[in-house]
Structures are given as structure tokens and as C-alpha cells.
Write a structure and sequence with these properties.
Structural class: alpha/beta
CATH superfamily of the largest domain: N-(1-d-carboxylethyl)-l-norvaline Dehydrogenase, domain 2
Strand content: 5-15%
Largest sheet: 7 strands, mixed
CATH class of the largest domain: Mainly Alpha
Number of helices: 26
Distance between the termini: 82 Å
CATH topology of the largest domain: N-(1-d-carboxylethyl)-l-norvaline Dehydrogenase, domain 2
Number of strands: 16
Radius of gyration: 31 Å
Helix content: 40-55%
CATH architecture of the largest domain: Orthogonal Bundle
Strand order of the largest sheet: 8-7-6-9-10-11-12
Amino acid sequence: MIYIVMGVTGSGKTTVGQKLAARLRLPFYDADDYHPRQSIDKMRQGIPLNDQDRAPWLAQLASLIPAWEAAGGAVLACSALKEEYRKTLQTVPDISWIYLDGSRDTILKRLQARQAHFMPPTLLESQLEALEKPAYGIHVDVSLAPEQIIQEVITKLEHMNPQSEFGVIGLGVMGKSLALNLANRGVRVAIYNRHVPGSEEGIAARVISENPSLSKLKGFDQLEEFVQSLEKPRKILLMIYAGALDAQLEALIPLLEPSDVVIDGGNSYYKDTARRTALLSGKGLHFVGTGISGGEEGARKGPSIMPGGPREGYEQVANYLELIAARDSKGKPCTAYIGPDGAGHFVKMVHNGIEYAEMQALAEVYALLRHLAGIAPADIAATLKEWQQIGLGSYLLEITIDILQKKEGDELLLDKVLDQAEQKGTGGWSAAAGLEYGVPYDTLSAAVMARALSAMKKERVKAAALYLQQPADITIDKSSFVPNLKSAYEATRIINHDIGFNLMREVSVQLNWNLNFSEIARIWTNGCIIRSELMEELATIYKQEQHLLLAPTIVERIRNARKGFASVVSIGLQQGIPLPVLSAALNYLHGYSTADSAANLIQAQRDYFGAHTYQRKDKPTGVYFHTDWKGSD
């Protein structure tokens, strides 16, 4: 939509136009900026412009309006005094005219108080004589305060245009929260949930009734009515599980028109997203595969958002994503265009892999502190609070502290929770991608496998009785063990992030995505599950460094932690405490920092049984050899 704020000089067009543009999240243009120099000079001298003076100016504005509309709309402040001027500017059908009306005395006082403007107060009379008040559009009294004018304009626009700006399909926890987030920020939102008798009935109506203060929400149970209620080009966010997505798209696509945008905000597999992007592109539609992290609270108050797919489609919805996203430390939205095809969902998949390993690492820290060091949960929480204050702050550490203090009656609630971790598949996808692209994925794969092993509860109970281990008779010196564990945890987190970013780097190169790792880290600094002080640091490091473990500040930190790290893992494993992620991180570090490894024996073995050949240290790179290993020299 194009909104033209009109009126005589001094009526407040620029002030109102700028505020309206900010409210509607549209660019603002001032027609005064397009006057030719000779017209400005003429007005400075107090000489009114005539129709001949205004003709080329109006023609230029008229030529720009279609481009502004194609880019998503705009607000223009323009006097547009005569009907013939307004007809010249009507180069697109969707223009909302907003006329700022006021008495001569009110406007003259404003002009006399105005400074540094080329239009002198003496020109008011000529403008009032030329003015032909429109019989259409929105008329607002300029004697109101600017904020009152804006509110009146918005209210009248809503009555004139009952269609919703944005649609949300799927009203589970995340979908409902995102819809409420949008509506709470002034967006007209249509919501739809399928109607299934006996199980899913009246979901949209229930969300509306539970939120009576959000007048901009409209609910639908019929898909066709929902689609028809949206402004064109339509912008629709799908928040449904990946297994139902293709069926939903099959029902939705026939109701859409070219240039409409469909956003998949669920946890979809990135290769499926690339396939769906191509499918919709062939129909003239935009498919924006978007990772969203933050859980229910983040979706409601501000998540981290990772959109990918066609840039043209992204640009149509960028304002909405930026509006609802969390903010980083500088107030910038925690969202940015990630890359083409399935890049957005791929980055979200890696996020979830890092999340898996972060959670498992904290579980191992807890196990060591409680079951090896014999520290009570309340005291573990106190220890973790100290860590939170000295550089290890993170959302996952924060919630772990809360969990360790939650009681049911006099008992720790955690002790009643079944030790059988579940997963939704994104961690497994992430581990599989590591294998596919040949990227070491130690900590993240270990975390996924740890969850799989935890699911074998019955077998584990039987095996525990068969393999009951008597701990070695050792004394844990907590004064050294706890600091060493802190160092091990810190090193594990750094290694874990390095592994995740390495996978993104390799895939970015192979698929030509050109991912910006500093920007990815920045949008993960708030809103998402893995937000942390470390992520703030990574956003800076990845501006200069390609590899985290080679960054000077990180090298020093890991080097200082290495001895204590190995000690903690060694003691824990000797005492029968499983440490899949801590030990995987340590092994990765050892392997990464070994200049001459035993992989030469593997190459010799491969050549022995399969004639796969090998390279030599003492020969040029790229030259391969084969040896008869049983034969004589």
C-alpha cells in the first residue's frame, strides 16, 4: 500500500508521515526533497509555484510510486493540493489518502514557529487558494497532537482495510505464541488451525477469546476463508510439524497467487526445504524456510530467527521478522537473511546440535559434582551461579540452576524425573550431515547417541546389576576438582561451538551459500536456547578468524584448561560415570592438536587390503603410491 499524507504547507505532513511510516514499518519519502532547484529558489523568494512548475515534480513522484509499491509500500508526504495533481500521482490502484485539515490560524502559527524551511509563511495564502479538499480518504484535524493523529489514522485505516497483514497456520505452543507476539506489536494477524472433530475443534476461536485485548487477531477454521482474509501479496507463516507440511502445502498452494510468501517456521529438514523452495518457485511463489529458536517464552517475547530461501521472498517479510525478534546487546534484531535454498533450516539444525551437546555437557557436570564429588543439589546450584557470574553465563546454565532448586514438597523434583531423554530428530540430522560432508562432529554426535542410549532404560537397569562397579577408593579434593571441572566445561563449550561452526563452513563452501558466521553468532546472542556470553564473543571473533580453536584468545584459554580437563575426565571415567560429551571434546582437542597422528597406519592398512594408495611425507603433495606390503623391498 502507498500512503500519501497531504495538506497545505505547515499542516505537519512530514512529522505525521515519518511517524506513520515508523508505525507501519514502511520507508518514508518527502515530496519536498524532489523539487528542482529552481522551484525551491522560487519558493524561498515567496513566489508561489504554478501548475507548470509542479508538472515535472509530480511526474517524477508518479514514476517512483509503482517501484515503492513493488518494494512493499511507502509513506509519501506531498501537498497534492488539487484533484488533477492527485490523479497524476494515482499510478497504482492502492493509495490511501490522508488529508491533514486545519484552520488558517492554526497552520499559520505553526509556520511562524518553523525554522530553516524554504517555504515562508507568506505562501500559505496561495496554497489555501489552490487547495481542493478531497471528498475521499481519511481527514484528520491538525490541531491534535501528532500521536493522536497517528492513532486516529491507524484506526480509520483498519476500518477501511479489514484484511489482515499476516497469517499464521498452526496454533500449537510456538504458532500461537508467535501470532500473539505479532498482534501485540500492532500487526493485523489472521490465524488458522485445522478443524478435527473430537480432537482439534475451535482452536482459533479459543485463542481469540483468551486474548480479548488483541483486537487485531482474526480466527478461522476454514483454510479458504483464512487465505481470502489476507492482504496481497499474502504472507503466511506455517508452524506445523515437518511430517504434515507437504499435505498442508498441497491444500494451500491452489489458494495462493504469484508473489505470495509462505514461511516454514518449523524444524524442517534442510533438504526438504530446498525441494519445497523449488516447488513453490515454479508456481511463482516464495518459500522462506526459517529456523526459529527460543521456545514458548522466546516466541512470545522475542526469538532468534534464521530465514533462508529466495531473497525476494525474505525481503517481503523481513519487517515482520525483525519486529518480533529478540534484540542483541546493541538493540539490533536477532534475525538476518541466512542464505538460499535450505540455509535457514540448516543453520537452525546446527543450532540444535550445539544445543544437544551443551545440555549433555551440563548433565555430565551435574553427575560429576553430585555423584563423584558428593555435592548436594542446592550447593551445585550455588556453584553454577558462581560460574554464571565469571564468564560462563548462558541460558542453559541459568535454567539448570533453577531446576536444581525446584522442590516438590521437601524433595528435589529432578530426582523424580525419568532418566530417559527424548529427541525430535534435528540432532540426528545434524550428526548425519557431519558424516555426509566429512566434518568431525564428535561432541554433537556423542550427545545424540547419549540420548539414544538413555532411552534403553530397561536394558540399562539390567546391565547395571550385571556390571555393578565398585568405585576406586579415592578421595576427591573439591578445592581442585571443582575448578578443574569448570575449566573442562568451559573448554568443552568452546570445542562444541567450533565443531558446529566447522560444519556450517564446509556446507557453505560446498553449496555456495556464503554464510556469515559472525552474523549467525550475533543472532544467536539473544532469544535462542544457546544464547550465552560465549556467543557474544564468537560474534566478534568470527569477524577476524575462520577457525575458533586457532583464535589467540581461545588458544590461551584452552591451553590453560587442558591439564585439568584431562584430569576430570580421567577420574570420572575411572569411577564409572559416563562422560560422552566431555570425553569426546577432549579427544577432539587431542586429535586436532596432534601434528603427527596414527592415521598413517590407517592409510597403510587401506593400501594393504584394498590398494587404495597413500601419499608420502617426503614426496610432493598429490602424488600417490602403492606398496606390496608383504613383499621384499
